[in-house]
Design goal:
The structure holds two protein chains of two kinds. Chain A is mostly helical. Chain A has a single domain (22-230), classed as MetI-like (MetI-like fold). In chain A, 79% of the residues lie in helices and 0% in strands. In chain B, helix 2 packs parallel to helix 5 and helix 2 runs antiparallel to helix 7 (132-165). The longest helix of chain B is centred in the C-terminal third of the chain and has 34 residues, at 132-165. Chain B has one domain (3-215): MetI-like fold (Orthogonal Bundle), CATH 1.10.3720.10. Helix content of chain B is 77%, strand content 0%. Chain B: This is ABC transporter permease. Chain B: Keywords: Membrane, Transmembrane, Transmembrane helix, Transport. Chain B: It is found in: Cell membrane; Membrane. Chain B: It holds the Pfam family BPD_transp_1. Chain B: One of its GO terms (cellular component) is plasma membrane.
Chain lengths: 232, 222
């Protein structure tokens, strides 16, 4: 792996590749992060009202959960392709597809988190004069947060991996580098982009875990109980 | 936009269905690699999961393996295979990738299903004098069945999706109709291919739900 020769000999690990294409790698990683962050943020913004709807109106619960499960079944390549006539070759296409995938896990975990709030806690809050909005914001949401964050972490890690498929329309972040390297069997580029992708997923997971710990200081004392509730 | 009309025209044109690159041949490839991979994945994952679940060991491994599976992009793994000598081995690289991504949901779900069997039921069975083998076949396996079946369904969906992405690295399967459409800027063909893939995935899911209803050992209890 020593020296510039590794580009000629097509080694798996190549320091010269990292040096000479660092800008390309940084740009691709930045695009990857932007697409993932936009998808998960929009996914959360859409999933939350859907979860509240599914919980508040039991009539809607089955259709909402059923529809998001059906969306999850559709393979990513087909999903992006079906959106092609609507969006053309754009990042919006990839983001929309990824949002639709993230809904399944986000809606399900949010509903499960809200339903796991103990009835007596709700009673107590109501007895103290909490209205529905304040109860949601100050009582139910904080208690549902561990389940919501667990869903957010799974959705984020999956989204980082799925973004690579966006290279079919040229907006796949690190996936673009993998696709570009295939015709010439450029090993260093395929391996570097793949490893960066996995590292990105791990970093995002750890970041969200840190955020979760900051937001829910009380669970550090009662982790075992919260874990049991999440698992239901 | 007349994409829907042209897509319909593509789907109803017999010429698009016959021949080497036709939809029937691609569907055959898709089902072949998916079927082989799912069978191999079951043969690897289920015995391991049931044994770990029965003995109660290796729990962290069984649960974490599915998190790892989620973080690794299918496309990256397929691309890595295609820059090794494996690329000349026909369907082998696709099948290996499919097995790799089908094992985590199978293993994790079957293991969790085994461990979630009520401990008091297991104790009662032991108290009745059941041996380890009897306990496994007559108590643990039937009670773990629903979770194992959920794992099988996620694995099947994962396999069908992965077989589609194999087209992006030049391997066979229904995805090839989509990638060929992208290469020739033929949007109706892209949409037609996507509809076929999505239809197949939904069909596989529905078929497994139906099979589940028919063979579930708990169906008489419900």
């Amino acid at each position: 792996m020593a020296g510039p020769d590794c580009l000629v000999t097509n080694d798996w690990i190549c320091g010269e590749y990292l040096r000479s294409r660092s800008q390309e790698l940084v740009d691709a990683t930045a695009q990857h992060v932007q697409i993932t962050a936009a998808s998960v943020a929009i996914g959360l913004a859409v999933a939350f009202p859907l979860a509240l709807l599914a919980r508040g109106r039991p009539r809607f619960a089955a259709p909402v959960l059923g529809l998001t499960t059906v969306l999850y079944t559709i393979p990513s390549l087909a999903m992006f392709s079906l959106l092609l006539p609507l969006f053309g070759l754009s990042a919006a296409l990839v983001v929309t597809g990824l949002v639709l995938y993230s809904l399944t896990i986000l809606v399900r975990n949010t509903v499960a988190g809200l339903e796991a709030v103990p009835a007596e806690t709700r009673e107590a809050a109501r007895g103290m004069g909490y209205g529905p909005a304040r109860m949601l914001w100050e009582v139910e949401l904080p208690l549902a947060l561990p389940a919501v964050m667990a869903g957010l972490r799974i959705a984020t890690v999956s989204t980082v991996a799925l973004t690579t498929v966006g290279s079919i329309v040229g907006r796949g972040g690190l996936g673009n580098l993998i696709e570009d390297a295939l015709p010439s069997f450029f090993k260093a580029q395929v391996l570097t982009a793949s490893v960066l992708c996995v590292l990105l997923a791990v970093a995002a997971d750890l970041l969200l875990l840190g955020v979760q710990r900051l937001l829910t200081p009380w669970t550090r004392i009662r982790t075992r109980q919260a874990g049991n509730r999440e698992a239901r | 936009m007349d994409v829907p009309a042209k897509t319909w025209a593509w789907l109803t044109d017999g010429a698009n269905w016959s021949g080497e690159g036709g939809a029937w041949h691609r569907l055959g490839e898709h089902l072949y690699v998916s079927g082989v991979a799912l069978a191999l994945a079951c043969a690897v994952a289920l015995p391991v999961a049931f044994w770990l679940g029965h003995t109660g060991r290796g729990g962290a491994l069984a649960v974490n393996i599915s998190n790892v599976g989620r973080a690794v992009p299918v496309f990256a793994v397929l691309a890595l295979f295609m820059v090794t000598p494996l690329r000349g081995a026909g369907y082998v690289p696709t099948i290996i990738a499919l097995v790799l991504f089908a094992v985590p949901p199978l293993l994790t779900n079957a293991y969790v299903g085994m461990r979630e069997v009520d401990r008091s039921v297991v104790e009662a069975a032991r108290g009745m004098g059941m041996s380890g083998g009897q306990l496994f076949v007559r108590v643990e396996l039937p009670l773990a069945y629903p979770m194992a079946m959920t794992g099988l369904r996620s694995a099947a969906v994962q396999v069908v999706a992965t077989a589609t992405i194999a087209a992006m690295v030049g391997q066979g399967g229904l995805g090839r109709i989509i990638t060929a459409g992208f290469n020739t800027y033929d949007t109706p063909q892209v949409v037609a291919g996507a509809l076929l893939v999505a239809g197949l995935a939904l069909l596989v899911e529905a078929a497994l739900v139906a099979v589940d209803r028919m063979v579930s050992p708990l169906r008489r209890a419900v």
